């Protein structure tokens, strides 16, 4: 499925920040447009104060890059732009260059559903400087949001401890685009279904839902409403019981459940959307069991998130299914991931890559320079550490040291000979040609589950998780340190 083509019917090249276009023009004017550059997309902190992040959005990136072009209407819009003096902002020759430009970058990326960690690239883009620059904003837009939501969904599903989590967020999502992307990312993160029918159509996600309070209110009595719904959907009856009085609502659901049973059908369950969910779910469980409905499910909704679900679990609430909406699809407690896209290297005349460093007074904001990749080490199926390393660096199988990019006192010695390893950045595009076959969404979802299983449970704690080791290979650490000192014009000889 071509996502952008299906949703937008055309080019998305102008879905970018204006300064990307002005930089592109300046690169072209200065003769640097075709210089080969390497950019990395990464994030600096886990969202939600967590211990892991779940990558999502690659299929959108692939679709965007496959369709990347400046169409006639894009060029017309840029042609009409004026500077402060009223003159054309862009040279016609530049606009002709854009109209003829074909996507020709190499892209390597972590697969969707992969557990990822701060400072390690999720996407590496290599190609003409102008193209790499123009890709910055759309790639960040896609990965920032979908990775954030997939991570939130994974946390909620961990809190639910294997019980189904239904994504109910369409009406509260950040617009049509946000709703669709959130439904897809939530499914990757472990949700079993969505209320979003269009997401079901586009992505093949199972859809679910029953009725709202308005259905009950449109009838003279709650009992009539339940009976009418059972007549319409005898095989899919989950009755919303809290419109007027939750206890009476449960009683009415049981009455209609008995009617269904007399017709050879079974009530699926009830839903509680307000009040004390722990108390009412336990009362409902007792009433349903005593009335001969021990298999009836109890669905809870009402602004749930991983923390409320954990609390309800601790209170031994009798809830089987969790409907989560607003706080999932809006990433309510952290509205942005904060991933960034930084220049890491420029290819020079001898064919090698000159590393580039961005220096800051905050060590967190100093990027990792050079043309590098990420390797994950496993022991007995469990992830033990990630190493960021230069592509041309030989790795001693007998022993290496990785050094935390933020705190150089945090170090870990690894003997690769005794571990299984996986290179995380996979080839996606080569010279603009797609090399990667996107797996089905079900496979991506399965990968997310398997990836989370490779993490020790201490890394998956919702509060104060244990820090997973991610470090620079020692030679890369020294290169980075030297470049920082050089950029700061710090000469150790002068400090005697």
Structure write-up:
Its EC number is 6.3.4.21. Catalyzes the first step in the biosynthesis of NAD from nicotinic acid, the ATP-dependent synthesis of beta-nicotinate D-ribonucleotide from nicotinate and 5-phospho-D-ribose 1-phosphate. Residues 167-351 form the Nicotinate/nicotinamide phosphoribosyltransferase domain. This protein is an alpha/beta fold and 496 residues long. The chain starts with a helix and ends in a 9-residue tail after the last helix. It has helices at 3-8, 18-29, 58-66, 72-79, 92-100, 129-160, 175-188, 197-203, 213-217, 222-232, 246-262, 277-290, 306-314, 326-329, 441-454, 474-487; strands at 36-42, 53-54, 106-109, 115-116, 123-128, 165-167, 193-194, 238-240, 269-272, 297-300, 321-324, 340-347, 353-355, 372-379, 382-390, 400-403, 411-414, 420-423, 426-430, 433-434, 470-473. Helix content is 37%, strand content 19%. The protein has a domain at 158-329: Aldolase class I (TIM Barrel, Alpha-Beta Barrel), CATH 3.20.20.70. The chain is globular, with a radius of gyration of 27 Å.
């Amino acid at each position: 499925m071509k996502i952008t083509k299906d949703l937008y019917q055309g080019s998305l090249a102008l879905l970018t920040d204006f300064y990307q276009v002005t930089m592109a023009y300046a690169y072209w004017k200065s003769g640097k447009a075709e210089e080969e550059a390497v950019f990395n997309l990464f994030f600096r902190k886990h969202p939600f104060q967590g211990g892991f992040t779940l990558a999502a959005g690659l299929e959108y990136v692939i679709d965007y890059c496959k369709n990347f072009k400046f169409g006639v209407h894009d060029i017309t819009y840029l042609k009409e732009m004026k500077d402060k003096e009223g003159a054309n902002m862009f040279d016609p020759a530049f606009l002709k260059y854009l109209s003829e430009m074909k996507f020709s970058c190499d892209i390597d990326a972590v697969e969707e559903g992969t557990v990822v960690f701060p400072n390690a690239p999720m996407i590496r883009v290599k190609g003409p400087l102008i193209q790499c620059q123009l890709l910055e904003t759309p790639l960040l837009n896609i990965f920032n949001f979908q990775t954030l939501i997939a991570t939130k969904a994974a946390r909620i599903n961990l809190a639910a401890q294997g019980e189904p989590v239904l994504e109910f967020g369409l009406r509260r999502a950040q617009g049509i685009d946000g709703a669709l992307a959130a439904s897809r990312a939530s499914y990757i993160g472990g949700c079993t279904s969505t209320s979003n029918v269009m997401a079901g159509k586009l992505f093949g996600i199972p859809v679910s839902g029953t009725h709202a309070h308005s259905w009950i209110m449109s009838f003279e009595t709650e009992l009539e409403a339940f009976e009418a719904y059972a007549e319409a959907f005898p095989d899919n009856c989950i009755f919303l019981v809290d419109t007027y009085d939750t206890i009476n609502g449960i009683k009415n659901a049981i009455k209609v459940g008995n009617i269904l049973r007399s017709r050879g059908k079974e009530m699926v369950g009830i839903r509680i959307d307000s009040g004390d969910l722990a108390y009412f779910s336990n009362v409902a469980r007792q009433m349903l069991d005593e009335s001969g409905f021990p298999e009836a499910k109890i669905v809870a909704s009402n602004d749930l998130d991983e923390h409320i679900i954990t609390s309800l679990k601790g209170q031994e609430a009798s809830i089987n299914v969790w409907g989560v909406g607003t706080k999932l699809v809006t990433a309510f407690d952290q509205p942005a991931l904060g991933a960034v896209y930084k220049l890491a290297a420029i290819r020079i005349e001898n064919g090698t890559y000159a590393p580039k460093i961005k220096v800051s007074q905050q060590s967190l904001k100093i990027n990792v320079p050079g043309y590098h990749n990420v390797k994950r080490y496993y022991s007995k199926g469990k992830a033990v550490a990630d190493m960021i390393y230069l592509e041309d660096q030989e790795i001693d199988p007998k022993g290496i040291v990785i050094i935390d990019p933020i705190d150089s006192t945090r170090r870990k010695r690894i003997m690769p000979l005794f571990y299984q390893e996986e290179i995380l950045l996979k080839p996606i595009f080569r010279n603009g040609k797609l090399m990667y076959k996107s797996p089905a969404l079900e496979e991506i979802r399965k990968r997310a589950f398997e990836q989370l299983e490779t993490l020790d449970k201490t890394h998956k704690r919702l509060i104060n998780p244990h820090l997973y080791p991610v470090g620079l290979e020692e030679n890369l650490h020294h290169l980075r340190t030297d470049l920082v000192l050089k950029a700061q014009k710090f000469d150790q000889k002068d400090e005697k």
